[in-house]
Each structure stands twice: as C-alpha cells, then as structure tokens.
Amino acid sequence: MAKPRLSKNNHTFTLLIVGLLSWLIPGAGFFFLNEKKRAIIIFVTLLLTFGAGLYIGSIGVIDPYGSWPWYIAQVMISPLVLILGHYVSAGGFPVYGRPAEIGQIYTGIAGLLNLLCIIKSVYLAHLYRIETDGGQNVADD
Amino acid sequence: MSPMIDYVIATFTSPENIGTNPQSLFWLLPLAAAISIGYKATKLSEIKAGSFIKDVAGLLGSIVVFMAITALVLYAITRLATE
What we know:
Largest sheet of chain A: none
Largest interface: A-B, 34 and 23 residues
Distance between the termini of chain A: 26 Å
Distance between the termini of chain B: 60 Å
Number of strands of chain A: 0
Oligomer: heterodimer
Number of strands of chain B: 0
Shape of chain B: flat
Order of helices and strands of chain B: HHH
Number of domains of chain A: 1
Order of helices and strands of chain A: HHHHHH
C-alpha cells in the first residue's frame, strides 16, 4: 500500500492532527494515513458497539456524575459524548439494573477501543515519518 | 420531524427490558466480537479478508473459551466454599 508522504517540518502537528481526527471520528486517523480498509472496519465496529450500548441502556448510561469512570471511557469515542453528557446530566433518563450495566460496558469498551485506535494511528503516522525520512532526526530538517 | 425519525430517537431514550437471568450473559458475545474485530484491525500489518476473518475468529474463540473456563473455575470454588 502506498504510504502518504508526511511533512517533515510539521511532524508534531501531523501527529496531533491524526490523533484529533481519530478522536473526532473513529477511524478517521487511519483514513488520513491512507489506511482506508482499516478505517472503515474501525468506524463501523466502534459505531455499532457504541450504538448498541446506547440502544440497550438508553442515553442515560452516559452519566458524568453518577458513573464518572465509565464516562471517561465513553468520552474517548468522540467529543460529541461531552455534549450528550451535558444534555443527559440535566436528568430525565433514569436507567438501572442489567440494561445500565450492559449499556455502560458496551459504550465504555467502544471508547477504550477508540483510545487504542488513537494511539495506534499516531504511532503509525510517526512510523511513516521515519520511513519517508530515512530515520533522520527532526532537528536535522 | 418525521414519525420514523421520532421513533428511532425515542428508542435511545428508554432502556431495553433485559432480565437478570443467566441468558443475559450472552450479551457478552457481540461485545467480544467487537473487541476482536477492533483489536485485530489495529494489530494486523495488512488487512486481507481471509487472514483478517481467521485472526478475528481465533481471538473471539480464545476470549469465549477463557471466559468459560474462568466461569467454571469460579463456580467450582463457590460450590466448594458453600457446601
């Protein structure tokens, strides 16, 4: 597969862009790196997992105050969860028992999988830089 | 908004009815599949349909088998401790 030629001078900026894209839309970081198949698989899988969690437990599973550790994991899927969390924290979406557990696990795991994808895409972008640059130090540019 | 869109949004505002019976543990399977697909999509150096499906099936199988063994061991310990 043809690897994209990343800018030498803006290496840190490129890594930041890849990380941000991956966080904004799951798989977008890989898409930016021309890894289209990987991007599509990740996008579909994570969206379905997160959507299934919301369907089973309702949007009430996104609870910034009552279950903040899960909320941190959920936010990793996209910053849109921050908006949803703000909306849900106003109340009106109670969820208890098994649906709450399953919903939180699904959405939390989807978020953590996206964290893995963010890290991997940033690392891949860094490797591409080394390959296209022949292993030169950034300070040599 | 159309009634169809209203209906779709409404399904996300109320939880599904899932009991606390042993069958509800089968909700693990789709999650394990998602973890296998997501993990292998990041791990493999090149994505080819055949090898990707094979790797995903292998990981999914190992997760399910490991969970089943863990459940059996925990069940045996519980039985020994309570009898």
